[in-house]
Amino acid sequence: MIPVYVINLARSPERRAFMADICAKAGVTPVFVSAVDGRACRSQRPPRAALSRAEVALILSHRKTWRRLLSGGDEFAVILEDDAHLGAGFAALMDADWRGLDFDAVKLETMLDVVWLTRNGTPFAGRTLRRLGAEHLGAAGYLISRDGARKMLAATRGLTEPVDQTLFGRSAIFEGRVRALQLDPGVVIQDRLLPVAGARAGIPTTLQESDRLALTQAQRRAKPSGLRRVAREAARLLEQARRVARLWPAMKRARVDWR
Q1: Domains in the chain, CATH or no CATH each
Q2: pLDDT (tens digit, 9 = 90+) per residue, 112-136?
Q3: SS3 label, residue 201
């Protein structure tokens, strides 16, 4: 069975207990990886970095799991963050043979967004694998190969963007830096996005108030005004047209569901 790593902060035992229960119900035994605490990341942020300490800590935590894979003999590993729900058949996916597929990473998660996917997919363990054509953010659940882990370690060395951007963002997918597949429907979803609100666990955030304030201020600074806003909107429309022209022949826009 493919190993399942769960990233968890030592100061969040309630999240560890939640994931232990989720994995037990899914029929898998997780390996918990101690997350890097954002409180200790101030000195590791590069000059003028737009990232919060929490974002830097998350990158470093994912890097720990990639190194964990590479230090052993496994060909693949699944990485989960500690607020994930697992869908039906998760254990069967961990027992499936992934060796004949060409990928760096497989996004097991859905954000319930409409994304670009290949029209023709590969049936796999009761679901379908489709190549991603553009970004589908989130890093709460994905499968990564050894080659993918090496590539991600190299790509995240500079701590310049959130980890989900490096894995499944525009530069990674649309510009072809990462060979990524999407499991359709997804088998992982974050607690806050669970379609049945009554089934959500209501997991508390691990962000400190300073992190939330830094993110809010960064978002405000990023919003242009006046002519800059008009220019950004024109660039966005041009980018959309470019995507359609390039992706439409082989791909479709579709919502990735969860089950």
Answers
A1: 4-194+203-255 (3.90.550)
A2: 999 999 999 999 999 999 999 999 9
A3: coil
